[in-house]
Sequence to fold (770 residues):
Amino acid sequence: MTLSGFIVRNTFRNKRRSVLTLISISFSLLLLTLMISIWRSFYVDQVAPEAARRLIIRDRVSLAFFLPAYYRDKIRSIPGVVAVAPITWFGGRYIDDRPAHFFAQLATDPDEYLKVASDKIVPPDQLKAWQQDRAGALVDVTLANKYGWKIGDRITLQGTIFEVNPELTIRAIYHRDPPQNALYFNTKYLEEAVPWFKGQAGWYSVQIGSSGDVARVSGEIDDMFRNSPLQTKTESEKAFQLGFVASLGNVKAFILGICGAVVFTIMLVSANTMAMSVRSRTREVAVLKTIGFTRQRVLSIFVSESVALAVAGGVLGILVAIPVIWWLTRSFIALGVPLAMKVNWQTAGLSLLVALTLGLVSGYLPAFNASRMNIVEGLRHIG
Amino acid sequence: MAIPISYNIRNLKLRKGLTIMTALGIALTVTTAIFLMALLAGLQRAFVSSGNPNNVLVLRKGSEAELSGGFDASLFPTLTTLPGIAKDSHGQPMASGELVVVIILPRKDGTGEVNVTVRGMMPDGLEMRPSAKLVEGRWFQTGQREVVVSKSIRDRFSHANIGDTMEFGKGSWKVVGVFDAGGSAYESEVWGDVNQMASDFDRQGGYSSAYVRATDPVAAEALTNRVSDDQRLKLEGVLETAYYAKQTSSGAPIKYIGIVVAIIMAIGSSFAAMNTMYAAVAYRGREIATLRVIGFSRPAILTSFVLESLLLALLGAAAGILLMLPFNGMETGTSNAVTFSEVVFALRITPEVAGAAIVFALIMGLVGGFAPAWHAARQNILNALRG
Fold:
């Protein structure tokens, strides 16, 4: 029997213990993978090139303030700007105000909106129908599926910020990866129904022609409105979305805290298992040493077992993380944060590395004790 | 007959290392759960304690928040003539037209900018909020560009000490006082004179909201209806307490993330506890058989081992609570879902939170302990004795 075969056999000798440890470690690793993925999507991942050329212009103070409509043409006049679309958070209710029925409702200009949201794919005939119907709506395909909406269906939203209950007809359905659970309708409908809102917009989404222009245009826009009554804040689309995340609190510390707790838990679980394993094999270790296994050998056998268990748990955890993260990206949207999370090789590699290191560290002490065992006492030990 | 609990305690003591490590594993999970529950408890308190049961908040019809509201100032005198409004110290109806705006302030520690709510109010506004106590300086004066800030605003933002000037609106404002709002949502606000603010934010002739005070909570209920039913006003009254209670929904994202994290960690810890208990059962095979021989029934053995697992979990819960106690009262902020501005609140490890943590740990202990205990009780006596 080879040494590796010996280790594998021993790792799964007490099947129940190994399986329980495996499951325990895999759940911790699942959480760790989740946290790393969230961290990556917030702070590491680069957005798609056309998204990187998209800027959001909003009131410097708060999203609760609207920008004047004439800002749109002033922004359009800046060289490098390809398209500008006004967007307003309608924030209404559909059916009732339970969180399960919450989705983003936005008012925009159908003629220009898709030029600043090129990641949304809409069939041309549907787009045309939406542009021609002032009371038309464009909805995400997952949202449409959730409520069973079809083209031509009529729905009514209840306004909370705006005192109007828009009666809309679904005219177009868009696809986007990941889905975004949003509904768009014509801002003119809103302006006509709500007199005080006329000539205003929540924020502007701007598409820039080339990536080299982004920084310059961004600065020029804010400079242009510096002395206006309503100053603007221009930021990338991603920074705009991260602003919502940051407002939840100290997210970085939160993620790191959970990661710390997880790592420590894995260490405890894995060390615990190895301690139990060594203890139940006291007599066996003595026999191994009697037939000539060196101290290092015994040490390496036990450490390998611990590492094998931790890595196996890690693999399992990562495999479970893939569907969980898929599901989360689709439900996190409800929080207004469109995350594009995926378990990629780097994330998986990092999680496995953590598992491996922890297996090594946590297995060492029990293994060390085993290797130092007195042969005579070990043989006498009653398990 | 039941096996005495001291038997279990002795067994846990006997294998100290194993007990401590398993309990620590449970403790870490409990810590995470406590942290999240304490956040939510603090947030809840911030909103629940904000409202005064005698106060009625008046908004434009259909509007759900002060920030998105707004009505003509000419309605205010009519509003104050409604019957059922208490008298202020000058014998006038106690009412305050208010202006609520959001401004950006830089954090003191340089970690970015935060939205802060600024409230302009009439002199009665202060009288209607007796829970806000002045701790330093004095209140702002009508007609002056003066503001008072809450204690936590002073601590979290630069240029917010008495004598400093804050820059917002169309110019600078002098900080003349600091108030303590007792952990309520007002703890995140800056207050000043409504007319001064209105001119700075180009909102002359309008109010975001108005507050009127009834003599008692029952009268407040009636006043709420009277405001909503008055055809001249087209306004809507809500009890201040109800208005703030609704804003606790701001904690929803924390709650959802927290539940996912806590469940995943709890499953992991339950399996670890199960492992420990299985080991305990395996080591004591002969002992359990002996107990059976001398007359302890299967249910007694089952109960004993489940109890041992629960004890282990309780130990973990105690360790978890102890580990988290230093964080009690730590201040943090989150975004208010209604106003888009920051709400400052303190982590609160209330008895309910501690109780929930213990229950949470006990569930982990029960899940982890039942299968091994069942196993122990079902063991074949003869085989086990031969061991």
Q: What stands out?
A: Chain B touches chain A through 55 residues (CB under 8 Å). Residues 55-213 of chain B form one domain.
